[in-house]
Amino acid sequence: MTDTTERCAAASSQRGEALLGTASRVERWLVVEQPGPWGRHQPVDSRMDTVVARTLESRARRHEVRVLLVRRPGSHPDRRTAFLAHTTREQTWIEAVPFEDPHERLDVDLALLHEPTPPGIGAADSPEAIFLVCTNGRHDACCADLGRPVVRALKAAGVEDVWEVSHVGGDRFAANLVALPSGVYLGRVEPDDAADVVAGLRSGTIPLEHYRGRSCFPPLVQAAEIVLRSHLDERRIDGLRFVRGERLGPDELRVCFDVEGTGRHEVVVRRRRAATASLTCTAGSPVQPWAYEQVSVTPSS
Which of 44, 58, 232, 276 is 20 to 30 A from 36, comparing alpha carbons? Predict the structure, then answer.
């Protein structure tokens, strides 16, 4: 077994790898309750019926939908829930769809996830938000070692709408937490801070020290958003509105945001290849990930 000090999360933190611009790019989600165990490749590597799993995978690819498996901390009810979530920058929504027969998951028309408003096919008491903590140790040991203590802390604090999730990306930033439908990605969340982090997200604020980006934006825009938020100490999720982006070169982007109460700002960011590193505990060979840096932040008329 690899020593925890040599695992990907510890190594990433030790080399000072920044979180900005590392959220997965996802705009449409199907989140399905499926008690574990889970393997590396979901939903096929789970106890889900193989026909159901492969059909979901095929339909999800066709509709550009990310499929995630989730489980409730500490309980395996007979009646389960799936969530449809839409996380574009123009509109966000989430809807819970209860089911009993696993084949009912095939009845959901994933084309509905392209609509700007919820389809109204689910439960009347759908939550306003859900919070997903990656705990899949079969994908990466860091997710289990660092994610499960966060889940236990949230459960002990009585925090609702928390789910263990199969994989969200960025194992080296564990413990990872994703809020839907905002699409906010957080990394390096600690158990002692987890309840406050979720309370802040519920109230519409982002803990910038953990912020990886929003899933509705590509990486360079994520980086520009975080640069501007840090510059202004702007933590309101809805405090920034993307206006436009302009390529200044293959690795440089100018992004314009409107900031509520502050006005319009332009941010220039660039990307470069960072030092070679293993990005997961099971990586076959090291690679050079992208790193993002601020070039300028200026008010704009």
Answer: 58
Strand partners, 264: 258, 300
Structure tokens, 55: 């059909």
Contact 171, 9 (CB under 8 A): yes
What residue ranges in the chain does DSSP mark as E strands?
28-33, 66-71, 80-87, 92-99, 130-134, 162-165, 177-180, 184-186, 211-214, 240-249, 252-259, 263-273, 290-300
Q: What is the amino acid identity at position 105?
A: R
Q: Is the peptide bond before 289 cis (omega within 30 degrees of 0)?
A: no
Tokens matching residue 243: 């206006």
DSSP summary character for residue 236? B
What digits encode the pLDDT tens for the residues 95-109? 999 887 767 777 889
Distance CA 162, CA 97 (A): 16
Residues 160-193 pLDDT 10s: 999 999 999 999 999 999 999 999 999 999 999 9
- Output the pLDDT for position 124: 76
Give dist(CA 176, CA 173) in Å, integer.
6
Q: What is the DSSP letter of 284?
A: S
Under DSSP, is residue 198 helix (H, G, I), strand (E, B) or coil?
A: helix
Where does the pLDDT of residue 1 fall: very low under 50, low under 70, confident under 90, or very high at 90 and above? very low
Question: Quick one: which of 85, 93, 89 has its CA closest to 31?
Answer: 85
The torsion region of residue 172 among left (phi > 0), alpha (psi -120 to 50) and beta comes to alpha
How much is the pTM?
A: 0.95
Region of 161 on the Ramachandran plot (φ > 0 left; ψ -120 to 50 alpha; else beta): left
Give alpha helix (H) positions in 157-253.
Answer: 191-202, 219-232
Please list the residues that pair with 290 across neighbouring strands.
273
pLDDT at 77 over 50: yes
pLDDT at 2: 43
Could you tell me the two tokens for 57? 């995978």
DSSP-derived secondary structure for 168-179: -S-GGGPSPEEE
